[in-house]
Design goal:
Layout: E1 5-9, E2 18-22, H1 35-46, E3 56-59
Antiparallel strand pairs: 1-2, 1-3
Length: about 70
């Protein structure tokens, strides 16, 4: 996986979002995430349209690195 990309879930309400390392196609390697990050990723996917906007694949920022 190329760590230079991230998938971002922007919050619809609170202004905070979640981001996770992914490849250029938005595929996240679940086994590489910590337990907490994996739970957050699966939660964000489950509530798209309710709490989070549809995710976007972007060039990774320093803020998301290492998650």
């Amino acid at each position: 996986m190329d760590p230079s990309y991230e998938i971002r879930f922007n919050s619809l309400y609170r202004g905070r979002g979640l981001c996770f390392p992914c490849d250029e196609n938005g595929q996240v390697e679940l086994d590489a995430l910590s337990d907490r990050a994996r739970e957050n990723y699966l939660y964000a996917r489950a509530v798209v349209g309710v709490e989070f906007a549809h995710p976007k694949v972007c060039v990774a920022t320093a803020m998301c690195a290492g998650r």
